[in-house]
């Protein structure tokens, strides 16, 4: 290979066989990568701000100087000061050099400190933080194509998952998604039988139980420890007596005659989604409905090359695909499977009706019937 390198204005050429290097493009990429490293570290910094109460103190008492943030949160001043500067450099807080104070803008305060806001973000960071912490194990497993079960992850994955999804369910499930299904709300109001399959910490089950007091619910999940949390949450919410929790895999789903089966952000995590769909088909009443909520996605890779798709492909690689691969069959359809793949799965299992009932920036909602 030639060592003769020629440089003209902003282009470097190694030899005729190698494309010329555009130095502006190279440096643009390097500085974008610097921002990515800052963002990677910010994932932990957001979890730190959430856990140590930095955001809450800024929201309640800002603008604050670093020593005041440290005092109000009972933390070391040097940590508070460095954290604040990192947050200011990333645009999460603003800095006023004349007063040395830091402010959390009202919109950021809503997204970072108000769990009732649909824009609430700490859970998104927490599940990402937990996922990255377990990534070392995934690198080894990926060599042989092996999986890692949902229950084998650290608790930031499980807790972050519930905290991430719950605000979206609270904003959409009762007001938008269930009314988008044909005839379902009337059944729920009159008293129906519902099974929430892959319910995790039960956020969706509890929201539905609160909205429809005449209806009875089963929440099931393959991860028994998640159901222990769900049981506690349901008791706190005052709906525990109307929900039965079953620790079981979807392919062994019990019961029959359900008016509604729901599956929230869990079908793509299953090893055998076709087997699960067959069980749902058997367990539904003849005029029953299966509502499947999946991460928003289009059918083609190029439909998903956007910021939401990027985050979901990341979770797919490190969390959902390993989870599916850890189970029997291990179909591993991925987090961005798209509507056509989901339709294929449910029609293979015997369902004849499939439609997209609703979409949000983060979810597709499918109505599936026999
Ligand atoms: C991303 S979490 C979603 C949890 C919950 N539905 C929510 O929206 O917060 C995926 C859930 O699917 C469950 N899961 C994965 N495979 C399963 C299977 N084969 N049968 C039942 N549950 C399963 C996991 O244990 C986990 O709780």
Write the layout of secondary structure elements.
Elements (H helix, E strand, L loop, with lengths): L5 E3 L2 E3 L7 E2 H30 L1 H8 L4 H8 L3 H13 L4 E3 L4 E3 L2 H8 L8 H12 L1 H10 L10 H23 L6 H7 L2 E5 L5 H9 L4 E6 L2 H13 L6 E5 L10 E7 L8 H11 E12 L11 H19 L13 H10 L4 E7 L3 E7 L1
Parallel strand pairs: 6-7, 6-9, 7-8, 9-10
Antiparallel strand pairs: 1-2, 2-3, 4-5, 10-12, 11-12
The structure holds S-adenosylmethionine.
S-adenosylmethionine (SAM) binds next to helix 8 and helix 10.
Q: Overview of this structure, please?
A:
By secondary structure, this protein is α/β, with parallel strands linked by helices. The chain has two domains: 93 residues, Arc Repressor Mutant, subunit A (Orthogonal Bundle); 243 residues, 3-Layer(aba) Sandwich (Rossmann fold), CATH 3.40.50. 49% of the residues lie in helices and 17% in strands. The chain has 14 helices and twelve strands. The strands form three sheets. A seven-stranded mixed beta sheet has the order 8-7-6-9-10-12-11, sandwiched between helices. The longest helix has 30 residues. The N and C termini lie far apart (65 Å). Bound molecules: S-adenosylmethionine. The site of S-adenosylmethionine has 23 residues, from helix 8 and helix 10.
